[in-house]
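Convert to structure. Protein one:
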Amino acid sequence: MQLGVHAYAWCSQWSNDTLDIINKVKESGIDFLEIPLMCLETFDPEAVRKRADSLDVDIVTSTVLLGETDITSDDSDIRKKGVDYLKKCVDATSAIDSDSFSGVIYSQYLKPAVTPPSDDTWKYSADCLREVALYAKKSNIDLGLEPVTRYESYLLNTCKQALKLIDMIGEDNVKVHLDTYHMNVEEKDFYEATKAAGKRLMHYHLCENDRGIPGTGLVDWDGVFRALSEIGYKGRVGMEGFSDITENMSTWVWRKLAPDGDTFLKEGIKFIRSMMKKYNLE
């Protein structure tokens, strides 16, 4: 497996001012960095690719949809804007020679919904993502659907729901991106949910239940790694934690979950490497 970390361990918005994070990843001895594309205007593909190539660090990308780009909106113009935005993210991902783009890309993040998603909601999402998936195929990019908690999405909260939407889309480059922080709320069992993803699993966020350092909380790590071993997973696993308390992202983190990003990374790597070794996933 490839082990990586999300840039949120150090920053809440990516820009050329944060390029040194790529150096930190290289120095730590892990394989990849996940960069958020929420602010495409501050993402410089050429600068990222140049730095990553010089250090031999792999990069993956992710994002979330907001109200003006909600592909489940009843407004066809908003759905079109959402598809256009996702295609721009695919372009940015391709420009850094990456093959992975994922996140809450199936509906508005924090949508103020008061009723369950309708059949039309599912169809809007599937139809829009099918168009994006076909576009991404031209650049050999996989799309990952990340189920999140009920407080952050009303459409995909579980692996089972993600697999339902993937079946509706019907393209083989659309896969599952699991996250133990969200699974801790929504899944009955870490092991069973991971096994259900099977060969359609493309990315896995290894997060503690409080978003702190992996191995210091309540997540059933043995269940997670036992399932990963049994499905023969060879893909990416990445730590995602928040040490930067700011006002420009909805993480609901009001206290330090780790002394700093460097400590989060060091201790997290130590724990996850031990679990990989235990389950022969090195």
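Protein two, convert as well:
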Amino acid sequence: MKPLDIISAICVIGLWAGNFVAAKYMLNYWPPFFMSAIRFGVVAVLLLPFAKIPYGAFKKIFYLSFTLGILHFGLIMVGLKGLDASTSTIAVQAGVPFSVLLASIVLKEKLYAHQIVGICISFIGFLVLVGEPQIFSRLGPFLIVVAAAFFWAIANLQSRGLKDISGFTLNAWFALFTMPELLLVSFVTEDGQMEGLLEADLTTYFCLMYTVVMSTIVAYGMWYRLLSKYPVTQVAPFNMLSPFFGALFGVLFYNESMTWLKIIGAVVIVAGVSVLVFYKPKSSKIKT
């Protein structure tokens, strides 16, 4: 990958990690699916007036809105409600091996030996972080976030089929499709929506604008561009940097504990990502 694209990918992960901090605060007032619906409703309002019409791609965008909108964004907020921000960024890492495995099976993308080594190193760091007792005490929400990570991996594959559409246009129309779906799920499964809107403070709406502008419009626009230029197996591993940013932001904003297990796990994960990104193989291909 080009140096600027590597920096771009790292920035995306940092912005997404910050989204966990912002979303955690909003969940004090709004139910998970309802909060996600508000987020994408605002994104649609901001982007649609300037977005092109993606003729011939509406069906694919609809499928993406279901997978990424409800099964990823919706579920991840459900899990986050019962977890702290740093733990949630740990659980999301399951999406990386899911992405690499699915890309190999579905898209027939070739795996290199160094990629397998890098994933294994990162997975060791993931296991170190999972060893935190607080995660086992909240196993249900943790597994929900892991499930959301699986659907993120599926969405990455779906996004490859939309590479001819700009990230800006895809963001706009994805948000339009996703918002009513999330609202429907919210009104069927949740309550307290109107009360939450009335009781929310200014910080809640500031956090909302962060998730809309920085985490959704900016970060996903950059992410879609990277997926259009590089294989999923090369882009997805950057998400393993999330625990590093998540732990940092958790300490800064919520005074979450920074234990040695978290530090060691984050360092090992960064080492694994470095192998995945910077090592240039000669001819060691492993096709699955």
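Confidence is low (pLDDT under 50) at residues 283-288. The chain has one domain: 3-108+140-241.
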